[in-house]
Design a protein that fits this description.
The chain is α+β, with helices and mostly antiparallel strands and 395 residues long. Helix content is 15%, strand content 29%. The chain has two domains: 96 residues, Roll (SH3 type barrels); 283 residues, Fumarylacetoacetase-like, C-terminal domain (Fumarylacetoacetate hydrolase, domain 2), CATH 3.90.850.10.
């Protein structure tokens, strides 16, 4: 460590002040990957700053496995240091570093927790029936996704191919023609649980370290043909994008809000003082044009209820596991978190710059950002999740 120091200046309107400080894994120019936190437009190297080898690794799992008391102690120390001059070799410009997935992900579960999204898709797919299926208000519906195809923000996504069926014609194989996004919030597990022991709503903060933005890309035409009776498969498993930065739960202490009324009242295992929602506002930009602003505060099922249901049968969680909220949508047309909703199944094209779109074209780029109330009287940012669509491989 050199003797020179520098103070990181944080603008009054910065979304990444000391009250935020999300964690990621980065590599400085010419250096190895290690753990850092973002402060303003800088990345702080924790291995240098805290002189702790656990942060010199190219993953957060080793730190997350140490549990909530350690998370709090490190966060408290970092917030103290952020107000002081720091060693110059511990501070890097954000634009100069490379980022990778911040955690080694074991399992990935995707939920379906937005009543507005579920109702919209019900109206699109089952126009002559009730929008919500009978189980939807009784439990957080979810499915197991593919952890191996989760990629860090900025990674391009190759258009997937699969079986599609148009009308009553025989199915055919080819590139998806209805490629979509899903604006979601992901929850990163820190402390594991034992197999056979459910994690109750009250224990949410003892196991979940933080949140990160997710885009669960979806091939709607492949999904529509394959999903009955067992649910999503190839239409979802080709790519899921995750932000490079994980915001600690403690940074969201002022973002907690009551859940919308749940009717009927959930079963007892889904009750507790931690079954709160989060006041997080997302923004989705399509080729740089903002097209929708989904509100997370509208979500019907809480993050703690999702975790409680995920483990209710005794399934264990492991350090680095990720579960996501499912598409975040609100009741208004400009709050829909997927393009199948925004274009109403392709019937209402969306104006994107000088063009109109229903689903994603090759070369399109989607960027999802979000803000939440912070603990210092100003909003905090949740980074971004971004991806560009590349043409399908020849089939």
């Amino acid at each position: 460590m050199s003797g020179a120091t520098v103070r990181v200046e944080v603008a009054a309107d910065s979304l990444f002040g000391p009250e935020n400080m999300p964690y990621g894994v980065f590599a400085p120019p010419g250096g190895e990957f290690r753990v850092g936190v973002r402060l303003a437009d800088s990345v702080l190297d924790l291995a240098v700053l805290l002189d702790d080898p656990v942060f010199a690794r190219g993953e957060l799992n080793s730190f997350l496995a140490q549990g909530p008391s350690r998370w709090r102690a490190v966060r408290d120390r970092l917030r103290e240091l952020a107000e002081t001059p720091l060693p110059t070799d511990a501070v890097h410009d954000l634009d100069s570093v490379r980022t990778v997935l911040p955690v080694q992900i074991g399992d990935y579960v995707d939920f379906y927790a937005s009543i507005d999204h579920a109702s919209n898709l019900g109206r699109l797919f089952r126009p002559d029936s009730e929008p919500l299926l009978p189980n939807w208000r009784h439990l957080p519906v979810g499915y197991h996704g593919r952890a191996g195809t989760i990629v860090v923000s900025g990674t391009s996504v190759i258009r997937p191919s699969g079986q599609r069926r148009i009308g009553t014609a025989p199915p055919e194989f080819g590139p998806s023609q209805r490629l979509d996004i899903e604006a979601e919030l992901g929850f990163v597990v820190g402390a594991p649980s034992r197999q056979g022991e459910p994690v109750g709503v009250e224990a949410f903060a003892e196991h979940v370290f933080g949140v990160a933005l997710v885009n669960d890309w979806s091939a709607r035409d492949i999904q529509a043909w394959e999903y009955q009776p067992l649910g999503p498969f190839l239409g979802k498993s080709f790519a899921t994008s995750l932000s490079a930065w994980i915001t600690p739960l403690e940074a969201l202490a002022h973002a907690r809000v009551p859940l919308p009324d749940q009717d009927p009242v959930p079963l007892p295992y889904l009750h507790g003082t931690d079954d709160a929602g989060l006041d997080i506002d997302l923004t989705v930009a399509w080729n740089g044009e903002v097209v929708t602003r989904p509100p997370y505060a509208r979500m019907y099922w809480s993050p703690a209820q999702m975790l409680a249901h995920l483990t209710a049968n005794g399934a264990s969680i492991r350090t680095g596991d990720l579960y996501a909220s499912g598409t975040i949508s609100g009741p208004e047309p400009d709050q829909r978190g997927s393009f199948i909703e925004l274009s109403w199944g392709g019937a209402e094209p969306v104006v994107v710059g000088d063009d109109s779109r229903t689903f994603l074209a090759d070369g399109d780029e989607v960027t999802i950002t979000a803000t939440a109330p912070g603990t210092a009287g100003r909003p905090i940012g949740l980074g971004e999740v971004r991806g560009r669509i590349l043409a399908a491989h020849n089939t």
